[in-house]
Give the backbone structure.
Amino acid sequence: MTDTKVNNMSKESFRRQKSREEMQKQLISFGLMIVLTLVAFAVVAMDTFHKGFVIPFLFLMAIVQAGFQFYYFMHLKERGTGMAALLIYGGVWAAFLTLAGLIVISWW
Amino acid sequence: MAQAHDHSELFPEVMPPEPEKATLEGKNKFFGIWFFLGGETVLFASLFGVYLALKNSTAGGPSSQELFGLGLVFIMTMLLLTSSLTSVYAMYHMRNNDFKKMYLWLGITGLLGIGFLACEIYEFAHYITDYGFTFRSSAFGSAFYALVGFHGGHVLFGICWLTTLLIRNAKRGLNLYNAPKFNTFSIYWHFIDVVWVFIFSVVYLMGKVG
Amino acid sequence: MATTVAAKRSFWEFIWDYLTTVDHKKIAHLYLAGGGFFFILGGIEALIIRIQLIKPENDFISAGLYNEMITMHGTTMIFLAAMPIIVGLMNAIMPLQIGARDVAFPFLNALSFWLFFFGGLLLNLSFLFGGAPDAGWTSYASLSMDSPGHGIDYYIAGLQIAGAGTLMTGINFIATIVTMRAPGMTYMRMPLFTWATFVTSVLILFAFPPLTINLFLLMFDRMFGTAFFNVALGGNQVIYQHLFWIFGHPEVYILILPMFGVFSEIFATFSRKRLFGYTAMVFATMLIAFLGFMVWAHHMFTVGLGPVANAIFAVGTMAIAVPTGIKIFNWLLTMWGGQVTINSAMLWALGFIPTFTIGGMTGVMLGSNVADYQYHDSYFVVGHFHYVIVGGTVFGIFAALHYWWPKMFGRVLNETLGKLTFWPFFIGVHLTFFVQHLLGLMGMPRRYWVFLEDQSLDLGNLISTIGAFLMGVGAIIFVINIIVSAFGEKAAADPWDGRTLEWAVSSPAPYYNFAQLPLVRGLDPLWIEKMEGNGKIPAAEPLGDVHMPNGSIIPFLMSIGFFISGFGFIYQTDNVYWYLALYGGLAFSIALMIIRSVKDDYGYYIPKEELEKALEGEAK
């Protein structure tokens, strides 16, 4: 009985260790998100780049940030979340089609 | 006659490692909120599409370049991004079964959200009083307020949700019945942040570029 | 005296039971009853339309009322009849097929139903309060912006409330299938109807938000003076069309895919053979859903999107014929070499194949963008979509009702009356809608109140009207069948020698579905046990207390709150006092939401002893 207790405790400390490492990763990704935001704002504020560069660049920054949110902050990289991810990607696909429809082939 | 079951399985002495997904109800809530967010993605995409299709239809009113200032938007972005991190902290402490710290971080999350909302209200009031730019003044105005307002409405809903959760569970500690509820809120809150990332990029920054 | 009091009391208990139920099987009953009621309303509207068109320049109803009839017929049939009945079938059968005790969110399930019901009620009350919506079921912003009165406002509020319910159902079913499958029930062992439920729910999840937004935009424009569709302020009405069809095209697959599932079950059961090409059927279902999302602009070929966009959407549209064809051939090959029993359920399935194939063929014709300029907004289109919706969805609903009636209500429907339902209906469908293709090719436009004499349209319209009445006769015989069968014998657990899990429990299923969760050993689990085991599904767990959700009146009350608030939205443009209803209704619903989340609801347990008693009773 004491054996299992010790075992449980070591399991618990292992889990806490893992969880602390996880938290560090999350802090790093938060830092990266702040950097991405700063870069995006700076590119616009500097007003030196061409529109054709800035707009796709801003899109890219936003998508990378969203990825950090989903995978690190919302724990989408954990096991057993495949279906959640699948449905989010489905939503992103439907969102892409909707945007394409409204932006590219709306007729004026 | 059926005797009352004490539901003791919801109040274990030692919490499992992932209390938010330890019960079937918890698992259902976890997947339910994610699927809901899949739908919300399309909801916001529709609003983004409408905005992008109408953003140059100013009908003689102020354009996005004249209206938007980057300073306030940057502050709002920082408030919401930070609130996302604090809610991660809250979930970290939930998994460590540290109820008090979880409450502290959730409280901070809520305050940051209120700060964001206050900035947004100030911003809207500024556009309306100083520029006469309203929901009705042009198709651009309608689309702008619809998109940003829908997001603001989501933030408001999140704050109300969080407040209800915090008040209700203040004296009961963490258990397998309420852990999924906190986790569900946290996932929702991150999603609101993701939407804001696209709003500040697509609406404000691209609006500034033209 | 005493007995009447007792009877009365039990009647109110019965009502109260259904008002507060969260049991998926009872909610299915509610959906079928609600959907059936609106189906009758929509059917009467169809007959009124056909009577108006029975002869040239008829004046049976006025032009304005005719517009209301066509609008309400379409809206009612799609949102309030077909979809709820389908959702009812899914509710009744899907949890049984995967070996679950209920859906993932029983409370939300009840809320979904009541939102649908009160949304539909709100929409139909417009007839009593100054005129129904009259801009067609699509309610294009060009027409709906200029429609006087409150008809369109009812359309917006009613569909918004009903649509919220449908979205919740979608999420609920996906979560159920992901988390609550019985041990051994892997994804690739799920029956086709469950697969169809899954894929349909995904479509609902992604297709309804654009509708929600579209209705919001229309609401803001009509009621709060915004400019989304106001061209003078830079608005764009094509946005409405895009958003509507981004929803609207997946919607037709929401209506048909569940029926593909139904037919797959019926063909396999009554051919006494495993479904031919199970894997191909599953992937064809997914492929149809995937492609179905990418073809919405084929409803907009004549808008002027340009030849490139039109060509892309034309090719995409025709591509859907491929997975659909795979399905048709798989059904035929399921019957090939099987021991085919032809009963009422099978008759509808057999009638479906040629009817739906004709509808699919005209679909490919319409999908050709160059030819579509000729067909557009003509009766050819009307003929086409009635062939697929009636020949697919309505046939499917009848087939499913005959097949699962014993499981849902504990009585087998009468065979003779079942066949008598089929034949007039089947002949009626072809009489009504086949000639409509020809009328369309001769130039008869859809949605017109009258047509002129001697333009070779007279005979075709007369035949079409006669056909519509034959369909009405079929529907009436079905209602008679329901009443007659209610007094018939109790159904056995497995009247059709079935293959899937729902036939392993009694008819109707006990309220806890499975005393012990079943252990699934492969595709068609019951059939496997019949062939290789003792005909009984093995249990995956020892007998123990069973956890059940508590019933609640809150879903019903919450929906009433939204219903009242809907009236507030509609009439606040006339008088500011209506804001009381608007905010009052919303506040009532929100208060109930808070009560729901604050009040702990752990559910209750059925003690083991009660289950043991029930099992003994079954064994006798």
Remarks:
- Chain C touches chain B through 49 residues (CB under 8 Å).
